[in-house]
């Protein structure tokens, strides 16, 4: 069900030019995901090729996100910031708690393709199975395998 209005807090992702590719990739990867609103460049809008995604509201596994393509040179808003200086940082990551090893492996394999492992999947002091990676778009992800219910009771 699409959100009737954007929640008060959500992750906002600003891409250089591949927001739509990331949006399609992420929403196909997670269950209970959908694109709810898209704003595209209109014909004659300075700096933007017509039809380019400018802004979108979407959900991944029910969690709301917003994304944008940074305004290109000549576009309204380009003069407001030094867009070329901005990039994603591994210090800020999307955290995913996986219920099964299969889900963990599927998400890790898809997200790390054309990306890079920062902490490869392994058992760490704080988790039986964890990975930290940067995907092909530069977005950082931390994937954790939830402790089993049996282990949590003990």
Automatic annotation (TrEMBL):
**Record-linked Pfam families:** 3-dmu-9_3-mt
- Going by the entry's taxonomy, the superkingdom of the source organism is recorded as Bacteria
Q: Which SUPFAM superfamilies match?
A: Glyoxalase/Bleomycin resistance protein/Dihydroxybiphenyl dioxygenase
Ranges for domain PhnB-like: 8-143
Q: InterPro entries of this UniProt entry? A: 3_dmu_93_MTrfase, Glyas_Bleomycin-R_OHBP_Dase, PhnB-like
| The protein's name | PhnB-like domain-containing protein
Q: Which organism is it from?
A: Actinacidiphila reveromycinica
């Amino acid at each position: 069900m699409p959100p009737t209005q954007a929640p008060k807090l959500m992750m906002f992702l600003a891409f250089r030019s591949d927001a739509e590719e990331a949006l399609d990739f992420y929403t196909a990867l997670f269950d209970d995901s959908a694109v709810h609103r898209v704003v595209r460049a209109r014909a004659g809008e300075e700096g933007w090729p017509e039809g380019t995604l400018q802004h979108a509201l979407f959900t991944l596994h029910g969690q709301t996100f917003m994304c944008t393509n940074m305004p290109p040179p000549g576009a309204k808003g380009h003069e407001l910031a030094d867009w070329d200086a901005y990039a994603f940082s591994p210090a800020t990551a999307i955290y995913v708690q996986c219920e099964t090893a299969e889900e963990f492996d599927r998400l890790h394999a898809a997200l790390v393709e054309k990306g890079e492992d920062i902490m490869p999947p392994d058992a760490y002091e704080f988790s039986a199975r964890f990975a930290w990676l940067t995907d092909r778009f530069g977005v950082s992800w931390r994937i954790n395998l939830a402790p089993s219910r049996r282990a949590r009771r003990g």
